[in-house]
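Changelog note: in this version the structure field was regenerated for every chain. One regenerated record is shown below for reference.
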Amino acid sequence: MKLTFVLRNKKNALKLSTKTIESFVERIKTDTKDGAVARRRQQLAFDDYIDSYDRQYPSHLIYPSAEFEKDANDNLRLKAFNGLVALTIDNLPTPADLEAVKQAAQILHYTLAAFIGPSGHEVIILVKIAKADGSNPIDEEDATNLCHQGHQLATTVYQGLLPKPIRQESVSARNTFRMPLDAAPYYNPKALALPVSEKPMPQQPAPIEQIAIEPANDKNSQAITLATARLMDFLNTHYQFRYNTMMGYTEYKDLIYKYMEWTPVDDRVLKGMTMKVRLGGIDAKDNDVRRYVQSDMIRPFNPIGDYLWEQYDKWDGKDHIRQLARTVPTNNPHWADWFYTWFLGMVRQWQVTNMAMYGNQAVPLLISAQGWNKTTFCEQLLPPELRWGYTGNLQMDDKRQVLNQMAQMLLINLDEFNQISPRTQQGFLKNIITLSSVKIKRPYGRHVEDFPRRASFIATTNQADVLADPSGSRRFLGVELTGPIDVSTPPNYEQLYAQAMRALHQHQPYYFSQQETKVIAESNRKFSVKSAADHFFFDYFEPATNATDGEWVSASAIFGYLKQQVGVSLLKPASISGFGRMLSNMPELQKRLTKYGSEYLVKRKKP
C-alpha cells in the first residue's frame, strides 16, 4: 500500500512520488526542514489569502485512497487502489479535543491511522474498506464508487463514537489532504477492512444548523417564522440545491442517493418535495416549497466560471494546446496555429456576456475516411466536468433547438457536415456562426430572453468537397487527415485550460487577422463544392495577368459562352448569380467594377 504525494511547484510543474503507509506515519512526526506546515498553520490562523499563499508556497497533496502514476500528458492515472477512505473531523480548538477524537478512533479495529491534520484543528482518520464480496475495483470509476459507499458506511459507524460531526464532503478515489503534522500519530498495521456492500444505504441526516430567528411581535408571526425555519431545515437536510446561472434554474440532489446527478427542479419535482415535507410532519404547500427553492437564498453556481477559475494561474509553461493539435495527423502546415487560435476563441466564448459584439466564427473541419477517431477527438476537447456541454446531435432544421443549444452547450460538433445542404450552409448556418447572443425562452421560463451564446462549433466529414458557400468558406479551418487521430491518451485538461486562461489574460488574439483569413480561404478552395459550370470555366478560360493577354468580360457573358459550348442541360442547376459568386471568390482572377456591374480579366483557351 502506497500513498501518493503530488506537488505542483512555483512553475506549475507536476512532481509525483509515493510512500508506504509506514514511512508516511514516520514522516509526519516532524515538520519539513523549512517548517512549511507550521508556517501554513500560522497563515491559516490569520485567515489571510490562503489560496494565494498556497500558490506562492506550494505544499504536498496526499492521495490516501490510491497509488497514482503520470501518463504521457502528465495526467494522474490510478495504478493501485489502497482500500482507504479518510474521515475528517474539524473544528477542534484545543489539544484535548484533538486527543479525544484520536482516542475514540482507536476503539474500532477498522482504523488504520489517526493523526492531526494540516491546519492543526482537525483529525484525519484513515479507515480500511473492502468490497463485501472480496473482489477488487476494476477501474477508477469502480474505486470511486467504493469510496463513496465506504465513506458513507464509515461515517455511520464512527459518528456515534466521536464528539464532533464528521465533515460532509464529496468523496472519490482522488480525495486529498495537505501535508499534516503530528508528533504522536496512531497507527495500527493489523487494522481490518470494513466490508462495504454494493447496495446503497440510506444516508443519515446531517446535523441541522440552528437558524437565527428575528424576534416576532406576536405569537402568530413567531409560529409562521418557526414553520418556515422547519421547512428550510427539512429541505436542506434531505437535498442539496444550487442555482445554475448558465441554465437559469435551480438544480438539486437527493442526499439519500449519493450517485444522483444534478437535476432541474421542475413542477413534478416540487410536488414530490412537498409530499415528503408533509409526510415529515410539516404543514406546507407547493408554493411554500417553491418560494424557497426558487429564491435567491439558494447559492448561485456557474459551472463554466467555477471550472475555469480552478485552472487559473496553474499553467506550467508548456504548449499543451498545439501539442493536442499535433495528435491530428495532417500535411497542413497551419493547422496547429489555427487550432490554437480557435481553442482560445472557444474558451473566450464561454466567458462572454450578451453585450459582446461577435461570436467565435471559426469552425475546425476535420476531413478523413470513417473510423479515424474524428468524433472521439471532438468529444475529448471538453474535460469530464464539462462534458455535459458537448453535443454531436444537432438538427439543423429545428431552429429553436439550435438556438437553445448555442446558449446552453459549450461545443457543438456538426457531425457528418456533408449532409448539411448548400442552402442551409449559405443561409441559416452562416448566420448563426456569427451570432454573439441568442433570443430564446428558458426550458421552464415564460418569456423570450436575450442570452449570451456559449457554444463554439467544430465539424467532421468523410467527404472533401463539402463547402458550398464560397463567401463563407473562410470561417472553416479545413484540414485533411493523413491517418487516424491518436486518442489513446486523454489530454491534460488542467494544463490545456490553464494555458488558455493565461493566453487570454495576456490579450493574445482569439480571432484571425485579415491576412490569416486570406490564407484560410485559399486553403479551403480544394474543399469547395464545385458545380458543372465551375469545372467548365477552367476548360474554356483561365485567369489573365494583363489586358494585353486577356479581356474584361462579365459573369453573364462568360456563362452565356459556356452554354453555347456545352449546352444548357450540362450547366444545370447552376445560376448566373451563383456563378458570379464563384468568380468573385477566385483570388487569382482580377476583378473590376463598371457602371454595368463586375467584369473579370480572363483569357480564352484554344478549342
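Spot check on this record: The chain has 20 helices and 26 strands. The two ends are 83 Å apart (CA to CA).
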